[in-house]
Design goal:
β6 (about 70-80) and β7 form a beta hairpin. The protein has helices at about 1-25, 100-105, 110-130, 135-140, 140-155, 175-225, 230-240, and strands spanning about 25-30, 35-40, 40-45, 50-55, 60-65, 70-80, 85-95, 160-170. The protein has seven helices and eight strands; from the N terminus they run αβββββββααααβαα. The chain has a domain at about 70-175: Tetrahydropterin Synthase, Chain A (2-Layer Sandwich), CATH 3.30.479.30. The protein is rod-shaped, with a radius of gyration of 48 Å. The protein starts with a helix and ends in a 24-residue tail after the last helix. The strands form three sheets. A three-stranded antiparallel sheet has the order 3-2-5. A three-stranded antiparallel sheet has the order 6-7-8. A two-stranded antiparallel sheet has the order 1-4.
């Protein structure tokens, strides 16, 4: 009886071990991940996609998240005029599914710290250093486009794709930002004064033109009257309101308009 009990226990134990071993031969790569198999340090040169798979009990499956990844950070860079700029940015990218095993073999799981951050910091340092502080603020989108193009050309195309860089903010010291604000206000005031000067000059020019035209008209009229004295009486007739004056100075004055006498 004891022997049978022992044998039954051994059989149950072996069955349990067999079940455990059997279950350990299966693995699942989650959706949005890819897997890499490693057996005693040797990496299989294949990337396994999401789903159920079979492996040896002593083989490990390392999973890599291949969904869109986002790296957000703030770094300090110097502009060409030696101003300290605090750059807040976002970098999004994807891993190339087919080369995950190569990435794991050559770089490891800490690929972001080794392959992305150093290049990103170098690109930011070089590109920001080409701009003067105030120009960088005014041309932020141009700077972003340049940085994005440099990252796409320098980040390892075997492993990374869909690279997009965004500049969230560019901040300087309070003293420098106040100086920029004062400069902008001064420029606006100068432009306003210039506009007023132009307006005054234009108004003065219009007055000169008007006065010149009036003088020329008077000169023409005077010349016409000098050539034809009868125009003087004609002008007076045009201006007369039809009323005779109530009194006249001194005798001997002859009215300008001769009234008809009855016959």
């Amino acid at each position: 009886m004891e022997a049978k009990t022992i044998m039954r226990g051994i059989g149950i134990g072996a069955a349990i071990v067999l079940v455990i071993v059997l279950f350990s031969c299966f693995y699942v790569v989650d959706a949005g991940f890819c897997g890499v198999k490693s057996t005693f340090g040797t990496v299989e040169q294949t990337t396994y996609q999401s789903g159920l798979g079979f492996k040896l009990p002593w083989t490990k499956v390392i999973q890599f998240d291949v969904r869109t990844k986002k790296l957000s950070a703030t770094t300090t860079s110097y502009t060409s005029d030696m101003q300290t700029a605090q750059i807040a940015y976002n970098l999004t990218y994807n891993l190339k599914n087919d080369n995950i095993h190569v990435l794991y073999t050559t770089v490891g799981t800490d690929y972001e710290a080794k392959k992305i951050v150093p290049i990103l910091n170098d690109v930011l340092k070089n590109d920001i250093g080409k701009w003067q502080a105030q120009e960088l603020v005014a041309n932020r989108d141009s700077a972003r486009v340049q940085i994005n193009a440099l990252l796409q050309s320098r980040m390892d195309s075997r492993f990374f794709e869909n690279i997009t860089f965004q500049l969230d903010s560019i901040d300087y010291s309070d003293n420098f930002e106040n100086a920029i604000e004062r400069k902008v206000i001064a420029e606006q005031d100068a432009q306003t004064a210039k506009n007023n000067t132009v307006r005054i000059q234009e108004e003065a020019q219009q007055k000169v033109i008007s006065a010149k035209a009036e003088a020329e008209a008077m000169q023409i009229k005077a010349e016409a009257l000098a050539k034809n004295p009868s125009l003087t009486q004609y002008e007076a007739t045009l201006k007369w309101d039809g009323k005779l004056p109530q009194y006249m100075l001194g005798g001997g004055s002859v009215p300008m308009i001769q009234l008809p006498t009855g016959k």
